[in-house]
Amino acid sequence: MHTQILVLDFGSQYTQLIARRLREVGIYTEIVPYFEKPESIRTKNPKGIILSGGPASVYEKDAYKPDSAIFSLGIPILGICYGMQYIAHFFGGEVVRAWAQEFGKAVLEISQDSNALFARIKQESIVWMSHADKVKKIPQGFVAIAKSSNTQNCAIADFSRQIYALQFHPEVVHSECGAEILKNFALRICQANADWDMKNFAQREIERLREIVGQGSKRCDWASAKNQSDKALYEAYHDKEWGIEQHDDTLLFEALVLDGFQAGLSWIGILKKREAFREAFDGFDVRKVANYTEQKIESLLQNTGIIRNRAKIQAAIHNAQAFLRVQEEFGSFDKYIWGFVDYKPINNAFDSIKEIPATSALSDRISKDLQKRGFKFVGSTIVYAFMQAIGMVNDHLSSCDFKDTRDSEKNLALKNESAKVLCAVSGGVDSSVVATLLYRAIGENLIPVFVDTGLLRKGEREAVEEMFRENLKVPLIVVDSSALFLERLQGISEPEKKRKIIGETFIEVFEAEAKKHNANGEIKYLAQGTLYPDVIESVSIKGPSKVIKSHHNVGGLPEWMKFELIEPLRELFKDEVRALGKELGMPESMLMRHPFPGPGLAIRIMGEVNRADLDLLREADSIFIEELHKAGLYNSVWQAFCVLLNVRSVGVMGDNRTYDNTICVRAVEAQDGMTASFSHLPHAFLESVSNRIINEVQGINRVVYDITSKPPGTIEWE
Asked: What residue spans in the chain does CATH classification 3.40.50.620 cover?
């Protein structure tokens, strides 16, 4: 997906909200650390940049500062809070400690409502402030466009350079018109595209997964990369173009120009920018390129989607003119260039990439002839790469399945040969969406495994099976290992021991099932549900604070199962995953399910786990969840469940005394589970839940409600 807006993160607690607000209106937005290199930003080719807020002060010695080259990219920039202060400081303004700090709501007074940033924004709207510093003096070239009661320079702009800055946080919900202001910046100022939605994402991701997984062939060593998108580009080029005879003059001209632009750079950089090059150079129409003016050159130098090198751009124009002269002399460039080999490709037989030369006697001869005819950037190395690209030289390694570039039927068969992908399914939203996307992409080459540990909630296995069968149309492999798990847990009451036994047993069962499908090494990939917040965290402003584990969802796998990872959801926030699940056909009841721990009900039973206690807990938990749904409270709490305390107490039921177990009812509100507060459920509701559990679940005579928040407690009891 082409990045429309790029957010440079300076450590604000609200940074993710910026991306989410823009994505909500269809604008694909990415977050990168503030120290992102300009080269990386150019590769992403965003339409605009937003500098986030942050906890530091710009005048401090170790203040976070981005590469100043961002202001030379020729695209609009918006600074928020710290981002505004950095802009003011960088361009010569004055930033000082505010005598009256602003934290909370303020009234925005727009002084220049004719600018695009505040288009259709009402006067005196509420905005959210959170700053101790302020811009006392704005830089030369900037004007104040809004103020608040405590901040004269609440918003500033340099219209000529398209640089805008806000002291308040438009991304938070407390800023009344904040989302509209961000939308104005992206659409009106940056001219960004608003085509980001889960339907388009699903289609693109399915195609991408097919490119990644649907290639089970042996290739030349260079056609690979750690990054999956880079790998897909390399493989597509290797399989469909490199070394295959090319005789179309337009495509020959494109190859010659791109090989010239590659000089001193990596080929993957060219592949990433190829579509932008085609658009910028009029589809490599040689006659149009030959007539480019100085004005067109200046336009190309402002195009961040291509390599902006004046000498190479001018060389492309000179080469177009020389190309036309060759066409006039020989009838076509194809006749000229292929005449050097009498239309017979040179088939080399190299066993190692180290054996492939950078030049040859023939490339030396062609290079000299091209230069004599007025071509530029056609040294022998570039010419040899050009010869490889158009199939004059076939340098596919002897071990490469694509060595015989003429056998199109064989190549098509190889293209359709797919590796297998192993996917552990829990029934939760993330793993279910991953499995569904993969099944849409690669069909039977997906191995989705659901392990019934016997520690699931009431009706959970049946609900998951029905969802995959009826809604998602994905054949699910269900392994019933409930007896094995209960046997291993017998006599174990210590929480960490229970967790360890469950984890090790799960791996054992998962491995045994995987082996059934990997007799000949068919499994090449392991799918997991890494989400975008995990990706952001791994490259935080302080550097890689947390490296994402090799097996995020399935840890501790044996060495033979260290497959290559596939992470289809790594661009998405949790709410987007739910939207994607809905697009793929997941029922609402499964999409909005509360989080459920990997060890299952085993850590919701205090002490030893046995079948009788599991059945008792399932019934109580089912009643609680059912009542939450009936009262319309289920979606208002983040997580709700019951815990069997295994604490017995005296009770009276009818005329009889009882001595039975205790159920604890737990419900919390949270954003991400890192912190949580107990839910203030109505007393009448809690009373009805208690009555139902005591009356309907034999063996329970007391119900308590947990009002502990996190911290100091944890959400789960074990």
From this structure: 420-592
